[in-house]
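From the shared-data thread, chain only:
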Amino acid sequence: MQIVKTAAVLAAGMSIGALTSAVHSAPDHGLGMAMMSAVVDYQGTLVSGAGATAASRTSQGQYTVTFERDVSACSFAATSTFQSEMIGASADSTANVARVYSTFPMNGGGASASDSGFNLLVFCTK
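Structure, as tokens:
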């Protein structure tokens, strides 16, 4: 499968280096949406992603992820890299920023803010 992908890239006139450095959002022509992603560690460092340009930890359990396009009308799916953390994501008042919240469930009910690495998927209409 990788050989076919590499051959298609070379046939399109791109170098392999250009392929590995590209981090733009991926339009899905079949579903009519663009998909972006971010992998962020518990310190707020953007580890990898597509369409994500930056990430930061703003306070305990709270993060922002900046994307190359407006995400204010997009859908988000976030998962923690730790099993016991609960993660939520929403659009920020800044058009190209997503907010991510991490909490740790407490015994007996409730939750407290907790730092956690996470994976974030963003689905946007074209």
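DSSP finds two helices and ten strands in the chain.
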